Amino acid sequence: SHLLFFVQNILGLVMVCSPIVSSTLLFHYCCFPYTLAFFFGISAKVTKDLRVGLDYTHFANLYADYQLSSSNIIPGELNVVDPWKVPSGGQFDLNASYKFNIGKCNATLYGNVNNLLNYHYIVDAYDGGTGTWDSAYRVFYAFGRTYSLRLKINF
User: Fold this and answer.
1) Residue 113 is inside which H or E element, if any?
2) Could you tell me the CA-to-CA distances from 138 to 125, 129, 131 in Å, in that order?
3) pLDDT (0 to 100) of residue 71
4) How far apart are CA 85 and CA 1, in angstroms?
5) How many angstroms separate the CA atoms of 124 and 114, rounded?
6) Alpha-carbon distance 101 to 123, whole Å?
7) How far apart are CA 100 and CA 82, in angstroms?
8) Residues 129, 135: contact at Cβ < 8 Å?
9) Each residue's pLDDT tens digit, 29-62
10) Would you give the DSSP letter of residue 65?
């Protein structure tokens, strides 16, 4: 079946999400309007106890923040340069889970590798007033590759 649902985040942006399910694979994607962000993921049950997934998140149409000052305001008009359009970027995330028993307890080991390809893209910046990259300051890049491991035990 094909299901569409809408979620509003804390910034008021509405995202459209749709999971597509088959017997062994789960596809899901979400789209965020305005900044043109989208997410696509696939998850496969490799064995009875092992599940592996790969997600991709992409951001585009992101503009640097800017500040208005008194020098931008002339009586009767507002002189504002378009802010710098930040280059688009995205990342792949790998995830896996493995179910097993510890004595009589059920356990699951979860592992994640975020930003699998260690791609450094800009996630936020401030425009210096010219609308170009060379005046941008306080430029923040995505984290590089990060790892996490979690063990869940049900007793």
Assistant:
1) strand 105-114
2) 6, 13, 14
3) 64
4) 38
5) 19
6) 41
7) 56
8) yes
9) 444 445 667 778 888 999 999 999 998 888 888 8
10) B
Q: Model's pTM, two decimal places?
A: 0.70
| Tokens found for residue 103 | 């004595």
Closest to 49 (Cα-Cα) out of 104, 107, 105, 114: 107
DSSP bridge pairs for 20:
2, 27
**Using an 8 Å Cβ cutoff, are 57 and 91 in contact?**
yes
Name, in order, each residue with C-beta under 8 angstroms of 76's C-beta and a sequence gap of 6 or more: none
DSSP code of 47?
A: S
Helix segments in the chain, DSSP class H = none
pLDDT digits 0-9 by tens, 103-152: 999 999 999 999 999 999 888 888 887 888 888 888 988 889 999 999 99
What six digits make up the tokens of 48? 């009875």
Question: What residues contact residue 23 under an 8 Å CB cut-off, 6+ apart?
Answer: none
36, HSE (Cβ side, Cα atoms, 13 Å): 9
What residue has token string 């998850």?
43
